[in-house]
Amino acid sequence: MKHKRGFNPLNKMASHRKALHRNMVTSLLRHERIQTTKAKALEVRRTAEKMITRAKEDSVHNRRIVSGRLYDEGIVAKLFTDIGPRMKERNGGYTRIIKLGERKGDAAEVVILELVDYKLETEKDKKSKKKDDKKSKTAKDSKASKAKNKDDKGK
Question: By residue range, what is the domain housing residue 142?
Fold first, then answer.
């Protein structure tokens, strides 16, 4: 029976489990979608949802608590400026678990853990993004070459 068992230790030592949680939550918040096993996803979801709840109210206290549990300060900033305000209207349930099936090697159940408002990029989005990147690179290159030419004329 599973009475008084507050969490799944994932068959890991406390320090390893803490590092695993920190890494996986950081990856989830960075990419907004990760692929992992079901047991890990269920545990990481608890941690991630608590952090998102903290991020809904941007205060120094909440930032310090969250940054104490994450590795990357850039992700903390993204959490408070982007993800927290997006989830402002929700009262929980910020993540979703999508089952993919079993892994071939060890038959572990594999799932996708993602934020609820995650938008999957389609082929059209990818093509338009590539075109925009090419346009911005050529514009930057032309500005840089013009500035270089001006510097050369001045010498």
Answer: 121-155
Domain total of the chain:
2
The answer on 125 and 64 residing in a single domain is: no
Rounded to whole angstroms, the Cα distance separating 68 from 85 reads 21
Cα–Cα distance between 149 and 145 in angstroms, integer?
6
87 and 125 share a domain? no
Angle between helices 38-55 and 14-31 (to 10 degrees): 70
Nearest partner of 11 among 43, 49, 33, judged by Cα: 43
The overall pTM is greater than 0.85: no
SS3 call for 92: coil
Mean pLDDT of 118-145: 69
pLDDT tens for residues 67-102?
A: 999 989 999 999 999 999 999 999 999 999 999 999
- Contact call for residues 65 and 51 (beta carbons, < 8 A): no
Q: Assign residue 1 the CATH number of its domain.
A: 3.90.1030.10
3-state secondary structure (DSSP) of residue 86:
helix
